[in-house]
Fold this sequence. Notes:
The complex is a heterodimer of chains A (110) and B (921).
Chain A: H1 4-18, E1 24-25, H2 26-36, H3 45-58, E2 61-66, E3 74-79, H4 81-105
Antiparallel strand pairs in A: 1-3, 2-3
Chain B: H1 4-12, H2 19-42, H3 47-59, H4 63-72, H5 89-107, H6 109-138, E1 149-154, E2 163-164, H7 173-182, E3 186-198, E4 203-204, E5 207-213, H8 217-221, E6 227-228, E7 244-247, H9 249-256, E8 266-269, E9 272-279, E10 295-298, H10 302-306, E11 317-318, E12 321-326, H11 332-350, H12 357-364, E13 368-372, H13 379-416, H14 418-426, H15 431-468, H16 483-510, H17 513-519, H18 527-564, E14 574-580, H19 588-603, E15 608-613, E16 625-630, E17 637-646, H20 650-654, E18 658-661, E19 675-679, H21 680-686, E20 696-699, E21 708-716, E22 731-735, E23 745-752, H22 756-770, E24 775-780, H23 781-787, H24 790-824, H25 826-834, H26 839-868, H27 884-910, H28 914-919
Parallel strand pairs in B: 2-11, 4-24, 5-10, 7-9, 17-22, 19-21
Antiparallel strand pairs in B: 1-12, 1-13, 3-5, 3-12, 6-9, 7-10, 8-9, 14-23, 14-24, 15-23, 16-17, 16-20, 18-21, 19-22, 20-21
Helix pairs in contact in B: 1-2, 2-3, 5-15, 6-13, 6-15, 6-16, 7-11, 13-16, 13-18, 13-24, 14-17, 15-16, 18-24, 18-26, 18-27, 24-26, 24-27, 26-27
Amino acid sequence: MLDRELKKGSAELMILSLVQDRARHGYEISKIIETRSRGTLRFNVASLYPLLYRLEDRGWIQGRWTEKAGQRRRRYYKLTAAGRKVLRAQRHTWQSFVAAMSRITGLENA
Amino acid sequence: MPEFRDEVKGRLAPLQLEATREAAIVEELGQHLEDRYADLKARGTPEQQAYAAVLAELDERDLLADGLRRVARQPRFEPVPAGGPWYGGLAAHFGQDLRYALRSLRLSPSFAAVAILSLALGIGANTAIFQLLNAVRLRSLPVRNPEELVYLKPSNSHGRSGNFRGSFPIFTNPIWEQIRDHQQALSAIAAWNSTSFNLATGGRVRIAKGIYVSGDFFNTLGVLPAAGRLISSADDTKGCGSWGAVISFPFWQREYGGNASAVGRNLTLDGHPAEIIGVTPSGFYGTEVGKSFDIALPICSEALIDGEYKVLDRRDGWWLAVVGRLKPGWTAAKATGQLESISPGIFQATVPARYKEKEAKEFLAWKLAAYPASVGLSDLREEYEQPLWMLLAIAGTVLLIACANLANLMFARANAREREIAVRLALGASRTRLLQQLMMESLLIAAIGASAGVLLAQVLTRILVSFLTTRGGQVSLDVAVDWRVLGFSGLVAVITCLFFGLMPALRATATPPIVAMKAGARGAIGGRERLGLRRVLVVAQVALSMVLLVGAFLFVRSFQKLIRVDAGFRKTGILVADLDFTQLNIPVEMRNSFKQQLADRMLSLPGVESAAAVNIVPVSGNGWNDSVHTNASGEELQEVAWFNRVSPEFFKTMDTPILRGRDVSRSDTLNSPPVAVINETFVRKLFKDKDPLGQTFKVDEGAGKPESVYQVVGVVKDTKYQSLRENLSPIAFVPRGQDKQPDTDCPIVIRSDLPLDSLTTAVEHAVAEINPSILIQFTVLKTQIRDTLVRERLMASLSGFFGVLAAVLTTIGLYGLISYMAVRRRNEIGIRMALGADRIRVLKLVMREAVELLGIGLVAGAALSWWVSRTARSMLFGVKNTDPTIFGSAIALLAIVAIMASFLPAQKASHLDPLEALREE
């Protein structure tokens, strides 16, 4: 498990980028994170939803109850215009940070 | 699937979240856990283990409660479709609101239809009449700087005698010339007279509208030619021989296809040749609003065209109107001052020789004055202004009623949607957003209704104008839509809808949602208040409808009475053939017998029952009067009497019974003593009901001439002379054969049952046989008389239409209200029925409300009608404005209609199943 502090800082960036292309519901988001990080990162209920609600309050994502054909209704989250800006900024920051870290610590293609 | 929601709920309990919020979170997290559980099981994890793993996730270090505590405290506002947070501004949601409004209107088609229709009808009618008023009263002349124009008139003339021509016979030519030469108040001044010219050279006439203009006319108005040149001062000189004619743009288009080659071509005007020198621009119709002209000639040409009947040099020939342009900086009052100072000199130089001392003294005391003429002169205006304002008031009232209906509809709708609105408020919609949406609906109705109304108005205006157009006077008005009209309609629509949409919307969104939802569909919130307002609206509708119905009945009755009035002669089956034999150049002494010859020829036509030559066709607007006096009963009596010159058979043709004595006969010639046949009123006023046969009366012939003496040989029944509305006056009929100065105009009245076409053809042939150069103009007497009643017909038709419309709208309004009230009281009705009340009692219960409202409305309406009808008094004929039968009929009609309207919902209520009613929570 990654250190909690590290996870917190990058969590927002992860969620924002996951809902950039299409709206997803909470469980889907946690599944993708788990799958793509090959188990390294895991968000469970207790930490995911407070985060989602926080992001929603800030207006970066927007949640909506949607009923798809043949399914029960679920809450889908999508990126807002403000969120898009934040995502761009955060990606940039993260990339600069990673690059700087690499140079300082000598990490190469880890 | 284990129930994870309860687990989530349990963990959230200590947070004490707001109910809706908690429910949402519980659902969302529950779903997540369920998915988790399903996934684990799919991978093969045993049930128990999976369940434990999921729960463990939930409990991880109390994170859930912690994390949510901060975020989930405040109830969050879920963006419900259409109704999200207010930020974003009006524009952001405009498209959304519009689509939503359209959708909700589509879902309630009957509401939308009635609302839009009411608005369209109300606005359409008002706009149409306003457009007409605008054109007749308010629009400026289409000339340069119309606000600088003034027209001249003597400010203190009381009456003058002589020969009158045209619609504004204000000045004689000698007076005009004096004014032109001596005035100093105006930078430009012109005179004009409207007339008509015959374009045909023989046989049936082809009439074109004409004006005589002074040389400076077009210059004064600032009009430039569309082709060629216009009449100038050089063209208008005394004794002008050949002269140029200016034609109007529409005439140019009609007769010459707008071809430039028209300039230079020749016209025949009343038999005289004239060359076309130019064309006036399109849009210019002269200075008379409501009329237009085809051909303009200089004033000096009148002498030649009218020949022996010319008025050009007559000091008592009244035919010219004068218009001028104020000097820069001058006002009409200042101009009047200057004109007054030169008045004595002008009138001194132009006093008619034949005036006796008294009349001359009055004439010399005349003073000239200037009046603003930016809206032109118009007898159309004088004739129709009052009716048009009255119609506008009527249409305005109908609009009020329609608006009241609209208000009621919107209230009802707001009530029906209370629940929906409450739920949306509870889910977090902002009040402002909801208001925006409800207003959008109102505005949409306003926009559609107003647009439909404006379109409808165009149609209605055309109909109105064609109504006013008669054979004798074609009405040409520029009724194009202009900003004043659009502004008016727009304003009405917006005010109506904003006001009547805002009030219900405000109330609906002001009620706490929980209250609305609890009370169910009946909407008891503020119900009393709202119901009170709706009641007032319906009572107002009833009262206003009553006023309109009373008005309608009054005007319709008036018109009926007028049409059926006993004119003293028969109105149907009479053709008037106006023969003009000027071109035959028959010497004066032969004319009387020639006229008799013409009349006899008509008489001999197969199918003609009788025919007679006459000087003045009854009810044609023409007239000839003179001052007469008698001394038969010992006292000297004097009256103004009207005259007509008739051939024998006239009374037979017109079906006017001869009460005493004899008809005029062929033996009454210039060689026998002058005789006359008088009517009953003449006997009453001038012979004090003594037997007049054999008595004489004297006629004033003017200064210096001896009086004419006539002997009475017969008495006829009273007849109308100039119009059907007039009071009866003394009339004397003198023989055709005793005309000392016969002219070349010979109207003949022909009575026949033949169809019109064959009769006119026969007459044409017969006249052509005598001489093809005789000009003929046909008029059907019935049509001519009907044309004089246009005003009354207009008022009767339109007020009748509006009255019915008002009653219909009120019925709808009453029906709606009673239905609503019946639905509201379902519970109560259910209980009553369960306790034993029968249908009749329920019926009475519901109807009582209706009858109460109706009663108050009718009483208020009656009082209002009585007060308002006084303003219409002058337009009525043969019926008093307080006629009880009319009031009674209006009351009865409204009562019947309203009771039927409230009977239906009452009927429905009485057939209620009590159990169902009570089941309603």
